[in-house]
# Entry
Amino acid sequence: MGPAGGATRPGRFFGVYLLYCLNPRHRGRVYVGFTVNPARRVQQHNGGRKKGGAWRTSGRGPWEMVLIVHGFPSAVAALRFEWAWQHPQASRRLAHVAPRLRSEATFDFHLRVLAHMLRAPPWARLPLTLRWLRSDFRRELCPPPPPHVPLAFGPLLPPVLASKRQADPFADIESQPDQDAEAPCTLCARTLQDEEGSLCCPHPGCSLRAHMICLAEEFLQKEPGQLLPLEGQCPGCKNSLLWGDLIWLCRMGAQEEEEDLESDEEHWTDMLEI
# Structure
């Protein structure tokens, strides 16, 4: 599995966070927001509206970012997650979640909603990570996150560069010899084209190279009603693979893009209804 410690995966970062108010006058208030830069965003909240913070948090600080969910494939996917977390009563995906109880703290209610969101489609199919930035605020979620959603702890660090990922079990993927750019797909035998997107098995000695669509269809044979795989068995070496790890490794060599949401390309998950 990818890094679940302090480091984030290479590529664009999209996260949805939960703020907790430490001000004695407003203690217990929470705020759900979206960010591409958690450290900068919490500074903006504590700096007030003049510093770019939200009006709901302005003048009520200090605020602490206690957890963040990240790993979304696009800004739109994260923004839809944010909206549903803010408005669970209006999301048809969360119609089964009971309203907040009178005796229930706002913080506990938001965690309860989050627990159900991580188990509800379409979010249950995404390679997300639940990160507790403040371990003293940690609670056990009920229901617990899906097995493919790792728990991480501590502050976020810059993305890990491939040349520095010695501790990662797949670190030697970069040292493998270059393969023929026109090699055929292991599953359909058609030539692999860069624009089509191809995936490689990270396990040493495995020669699997396949179109993203071909491997997705292979993994979904036991889940015919789904569009996005969670995991599957490599057709080559028969090892178990997480779909999120394959996508992460595919993009690992890509250069970091500018944090400009207006230039963000659409992702197919953006079309899923919430």
